[in-house]
C-alpha cells in the first residue's frame, strides 16, 4: 500500500473515533509527538512524587500519613502506566528515563515549585491534582489507544488524590487562626501556578492546532483552564478562603467566571529552568537513579541465580 | 542477563472467581516471579484481582492490522449464526 493510501486509512480512523494502536501505520510526526507527550506526562508523575515525598515524615497524623503514602504510591504507578504506553511507540524505557535526566525531556512546570508547609500538601491535592484531573478526563478520549486506556485507569484512581488534599484544607480552615492563615498562604502560592498547568493560551500554542487535528488533544488549553476555574471557585468559597485574583468575578451572561491575567513571564521562565526547584528536582531524580542501581542489579543477579538453579535441578 | 535486558511482560488480572483474566498493562522485570510481585504492587492496589497472569510480551502473537479485512470480513455476512435470524412464534414461549 502506498503512503498516500495508508494516510487515508489513518485519517479515516481519526475522523471515525477509531483508536490508533501500536502496530498501526501512523504519520512519523504523530508517533513523535504522542511519544513525547506520553513520556513527559510520565516524567511529571514521577517528579510529582518529590514535593509530596518531602512531607511524609512530617504528616501530622497517621491518617494523613497513610493517605499521603498511598497517593505518592499511585503517582509512581501512574508514571509506570505512561512509560509503558510510551514504550509501545518503539523507544525503550532506559532511553526515556535518560532523556529526563539529560534535560532533553520536560515535565509539568508545577513541580518546580516547593511544598513549604503542610497546607501546601493540601493545596497540591486540591489544585494541582484538580487541574490534572480536568486535563486527564479530556485525554481519556485521546486518539492513541494505549494513552487513552492509561488515562481511563489513572482517572479512576485520581479522585481520591483531590479529596485527600481538600480534606486537609478543610481541617485547617476549621482549625485555629494560624492554621487557616497557613491554608490561605498555600492557596496564594499555588493558585496561579496551577492555572499555568494548562499551558499557554491556544493562540500562543504552536502545537495545539495539529494536536487537535490528530485528536490527541480534545479540548483547547483556554477551555480546560476555564473549566477548572469555574469548578474550583465554590470549593474555595466553602473553605472560606480567598482566591488571589482581584479580577475574579461571575459573568452571568457567559455563565462562567471572568478572571485576571497569568504572568506569562513567570511561566516561560520556569519552563526554561529558572523555577524555584528545577535543579533540585533533576538532582533528586539523578540521585534516585544512581542510588537505586544496586536494587536493579540485585534483582538481575537474583533472577540469574534462580534461573541457574532451575537449570541445575532440571539436569 | 544484564539489567538492560529485562523483558517486557503483559499483565492479566482476574478480578473475581468465575471471570476471565483481563489485560491490565505491562511492566519490565527480570523474571516471572518478580513480574508477578511487581504486577501485584502496580495493578492490584485496590483489590482489583484474585489472580494474576504474566506473559512475556514477545510470546504474544497477534493479527496484523493489514490483514483485518481478510481475517474477519467473511464472518460479517453469516448472520444465520445469530439467534435473531430465526423466526420463532411468540406462542412457543422463550427459546
Morphology of chain A = globular
In total, the number of domains of chain B comes to 1
Cα separation of the termini of chain B: 59 Å
Task: Identify the CATH class of chain B.
Answer: Alpha Beta
Total helix count of chain A? Answer: 12
Give me the Rg of chain A, rounded: 22 Å
Helical element count of chain B? 2
The percentage of residues in β strands of chain B lies in 15-25%
Mean of pLDDT of chain A: 95
For the secondary structure, the number of strands of chain B is 3
List keywords for this structure.
heterodimer; A: 315 residues; mainly alpha; two-stranded antiparallel ribbon; 12 helices; B: alpha+beta; Ubiquitin-like (UB roll); 2 helices
Provide the fold topology.
The complex is a heterodimer of chains A (315) and B (95).
Chain A: H1 3-15, H2 28-53, H3 62-87, H4 93-101, H5 118-139, H6 145-173, H7 177-196, H8 208-213, H9 221-239, E1 249-251, E2 256-258, H10 264-274, H11 278-291, H12 293-314
Helix pairs in contact in A: 2-3, 3-6, 5-6, 5-7, 5-9
Chain B: E1 8-14, E2 21-28, H1 32-43, E3 51-56, H2 68-72
Antiparallel strand pairs in B: 1-2, 1-3
